[in-house]
Every structure is written in C-alpha cells, then in structure tokens.
Write a structure and sequence with these properties.
Blueprint (H helix, E strand, L loop, with lengths): L4 H10 L17 E6 L3 H11 L4 E6 L2 H10 L4 E5 L7 H10 L5 E6 L4 H9 L4 E4 L4 H26 L5 E2 L2 E2 L3 H13 L6 E4 L6 H11 L7 E5 L5 H9 E2 L11 E2 L1 H4 L4 E5 L6 H13 L1 E3 L6 E3 L3 E6 L3 H6 L5 H7 L2 E4 L9 H17 L5 E2 L1 H9 L5 H15 L4 E2 L6 H8 L15 H14 L7 H15 L4 H8 L3 H18 L1
Parallel strand pairs: 1-2, 1-3, 3-4, 4-5, 8-15, 8-16, 9-12, 12-15, 17-18
Antiparallel strand pairs: 6-7, 10-11, 13-14
Helix pairs in contact: 1-14, 3-4, 14-16, 19-20
C-alpha cells in the first residue's frame, strides 16, 4: 500500500462531492437492435429471414459508408459485419467502432478463405465470426450468445460503478458500507416517510439528513436542524413550535419555531432521545396530524414537513428504560438507518484524511500535500472512537502545529501513537491476524498434511479465490474487491498475512 500525493490529487481532480455520477440504466426488456452490413441484397434478405423468428430489430445497409452514417444516428447492441464491402474493408468499420469506444459488439461475416482475417478482427474487438455459408441455427445461436454477453457485460459495469462512488453529497467514502448508505439514501429520499438515523457520535448523522433532503422533492424548501441535546428543556417546545408574545417571561415578540420554518421542507431532530417525555407526546400528535400550537396560542397551525431524526443511543434500550415513548419510537422508526463507524470503513479513513488535509492546509496557508505510508497505515489501524469528528481534530492539530510537504509520524498527536501501538491491528476476521510462531508451525503442519488430501485450510482456499478475482480484473484490486463484496483494504491486509505465512515456512 502506498499513501502519497496520488490519492490527494485524485481527490482534487474529482472535485470531491461537487458533482454526483448519474448512471443511465437501459431497459433490459427493449427489443435488441442489430445492424447488418452486407453488400449482397439477396444474402441480407436471407439473414434477416433467419432472424425474423426472434425479437430483434434488424436494420441492413450494403456498404461501409452507410454503416458509419448509421452508427452516428443509432446505437445498436450488435453489428453483423461482412469484411468484403464495395467501398471499404469491414476492418475499417471495425476500427471506427473500436477507436470511438461504441457500446456495441461485432460479429464478423467472412468467406472460408478469409478466416485468418476474421481472427485478426477478433483481436481488434470482434466477439465472434461466422464463416460462409452458415445456416439459420448457427446464426441465431451466435447472435443470441453475443447479445447475452453484451447485456451481461453492461450489467457488470453498472454493478461495479455503484462501488466506484467515492463521494455522495458531503459524504466521502468508497467502502462497501458507505455504498450501502448511498443506496439507502437514494431509495428513501423520494418518500414522505420519517427516517430514524442511528450511529455513534461523529459518524455524520446530520450529513445523512441533509443528503436525504437534497435527494428529495423537497430540496428547494428549507432544511431546519434542531439539536435536542443543546437546548434547555424549558425552551424546547418553543424552539420546535414557536411562541406568541407574552407566552412566558422573556417572550417579548412572537417567534416562529422550527416546525413553521421547515414548512414544505425537512425538519431534522438530532439527539431526539434527549427530549422530555411530556414534549414527546406533543411531538407524536404533531407527526400524526401535521398540526401544532405555538406556546401560549390557542390557534392551530398546519404544516407539511418531512421528519428526520437521529440519536447516538440505542432507541430500543431507551424505550425499555422508560425514557422514550414506545408509540413515538414506532411512529418515527419507519425507515431505520444505521451509519457505520469509521473503524468499519476500511481505507475510507485515508480518503477523508486526504480531503481534510487539502482543505485545512489551504485554510492555514500550509504546504501539506500528502501523508506518508507509515502514517496512512497507523490511521487505518487506529479504532477512532470519536469517528470522523476525531479524525478532523487530529488533522487540524497536525496542520496547525507543523509544516512540510508530507505528514510524518512525528507530527501525530501523542495519544494516537500510544493507542495505535498498544493493541494488535484491527482485523476483519481471525484469518488475517498474525500467528505466533508456535501457531504458525501448527498451521503449516496442517497445510502439509492437507496437501495429500481433499481438504485445504480455509485461508488457502480464500487466497485462491481472491487471487483469481484479481487476475480476472486485470490486476485492478478495487474492482476485484467490489465484485467480492469486500473492501480493497481487506485484500491488502490478507496479502500481507499470506506473505508472513510464506516467510515462516521458507
């Protein structure tokens, strides 16, 4: 693993969270479009007849120029391409498709004497070839296989793209845990249902609420956030519902509460488990009816708002302890949402630290541009009990108290070095943990004895699966990790463990 300016530059180039990727999904049920390029009208009619029994739209042209014009106007899934054309070679058409990266597969049609050319065409991107003459069954099977492969390839690409988002609104992270968060936000946002966000302090509950609001149809209206733990209990009702002049001592004028200000938009109630039980009953009625009264007023107000609430406690434990109304909990808990702690997000800590370092270095007029490999490894080992908020404080401390191009170990706060050095590295399962020498010897004895049988140690089977996935993805470890549904950092740690085991047996 190398932690350097490379990923910081990537953060800047992508403009973290300035824009979001929008993937266009093609309806799999639409009729497949095929372009047939054949200079013989009679053969073209025969091939179209062969495919007439299938649900394909087959468009035929008789020369290369017409084929190129067609590809400008249309996007076929498949091209049936004769190599011998009156105005140009079919290879020229194939080269055009290849150079422009058109999303279509090509099947070459060739005579027996030109099979060598067909093989060369496949090296340039053609998926198959048909040697003349061929019958209807051969054509149908070849076309069907090519279309299935094309659609499967597109599905895999879309699947991989869902794991390539390294930011979403104000979130930064590309781990599987965060990809799940992004998808839930996108699914829940269009609804009017209340959302109950849980998670440790510093995991980004308010960022999640803001993302839900920005993804919803209410994005053009107000987003009003209220921290129930930061407001005195005597003033909480007034903060939510407002008050009229003279409602209590100090109420010198009428004041709109958060419910009025959020009309048409979203009201976010953070740390809702801190709310007084008496006010919880009023909140329950407000959620059910959308109506409320200002403090001291006899007139009811009607609003249209979406409620999103959050807590860093276990709400069910609060219900069981009698501190939170059960009926309110079930009214709020329509869409439960648990945010992962930073320690469960793998290499996301490096992405977040890099973006924070870039931003804070600019604010403090410092020269920092990257993080050393040793610091990066330590940041990933540390448990981060304060989550992203603690990481932000650490980066701010480094930037304010030090200077240089790269963050080194001697710049880290003392508590981070001490707590990271004491415990063993945090691993996702016991297969990743370094083994003591005696355990390692026992493990290798098991390996040696198992090599003559049918059962192999689990870590060897796991190693084979992961290495095959990396090979299939042409060495792209993040892509392999996405397909295996694990984080890329897991693969790096497992590889380090395998190297240690190999060294102990050498």
């Amino acid at each position: 693993m190398t932690v350097s300016i490379v990923w910081l530059k990537a953060a800047n180039d992508k403009g973290f969270c300035d824009k979001q990727r929008k993937d266009t999904v093609t309806d799999q049920n639409t009729q497949a479009r095929i372009l047939l390029v054949e200079d013989s009208p009679s053969l073209a009619a025969v091939y179209q007849g062969y495919l007439a029994t299938e649900e394909y739209q087959v468009d035929a042209v008789d020369n290369g120029t017409a084929a190129l014009d067609y590809l400008v106007r249309q996007s076929p899934e498949l091209v049936l391409l004769d190599l011998r054309l009156p105005d140009m070679s079919g290879m020229d058409v194939l080269q055009h498709i290849h150079e422009r990266g058109l999303d279509c597969d090509v099947i070459i049609i060739t005579a027996h004497g030109s099979v060598g050319s067909a093989v060369e065409a496949m090296r340039l991107g053609a998926v198959d070839f048909l040697a003349k003459p061929f019958d209807a069954t051969r054509l149908r099977v070849t076309v069907s296989n090519a279309l299935d492969k094309h659609r499967l390839s597109n599905m895999v690409t879309r699947y991989q793209n869902t794991f390539e988002r390294d930011c979403f609104h104000n979130f930064i992270g590309q781990s599987l845990a965060m990809q799940a968060v992004y998808r839930i936000i996108e699914s829940a946002a269009p609804s009017k249902a209340t959302v109950f966000i849980t998670g440790e302090s510093g995991t980004g509950k308010e960022l999640c609420a803001e993302a839900i609001h920005q993804e919803s149809p209410r994005r053009d209206k107000a987003f009003v956030a209220l921290n129930c733990a930061a407001i005195p209990r005597d003033l909480m009702e007034s903060e939510i519902f407002g008050h009229i002049k003279g409602a209590f001592t100090g109420a010198v004028a009428r004041r709109d509460g958060a419910a009025s200000r959020a009309d048409g938009g979203t009201l976010f109630l953070d740390e809702i488990c801190e709310m007084d039980l008496d006010l919880q009953s009023k909140l329950l009625r407000f959620i059910q009816t959308g109506r409320f009264q200002r403090v001291g007023d006899s007139k009811e107000q009607q609003v249209d708002i979406r409620i999103v609430c959050a807590t860093n406690r276990d709400p069910l434990q609060e219900v069981q302890a009698g501190r939170f109304r059960e009926d309110l909990y079930y009214r709020l808990n329509v869409i439960p949402f648990a945010l992962p702690p930073l320690r469960d997000r793998g290499s996301d800590v490096l992405l977040i630290a890099g973006e924070m370092l870039r931003r804070m270095a600019g604010e403090e007029d410092k020269a920092f541009r990257s993080i050393s490999q040793a610091v990066g490894e330590l940041l990933q080992r540390y448990a981060w009990p304060g989550n992203v908020r603690e990481l932000e404080n650490v980066i701010r401390n480094i930037v304010v108290l030090n200077n240089g191009d790269q963050v080194s170990l001697d710049m880290l706060p003392a508590h981070l070095l001490e707590q990271s050095a004491a415990p063993a590295p945090v691993m996702e399962n016991t297969a990743e943990m370094p083994l003591p020498s005696t355990q390692a010897e026992q493990q290798m004895e098991i390996v040696e004895s198992a090599q003559t049988g049918t059962i192999r140690p689990l870590w060897l089977e796991e190693k084979d699966v992961i290495e095959r996935a990396i090979q299939t993805c042409d060495g792209n470890i993040p892509k392999a990790a996405a397909l295996l549904e694990i984080s890329a950092s897991t693969i790096y740690r497992k590889r380090a463990t395998w190297e240690k085991l190999a060294g102990q047996t050498g």
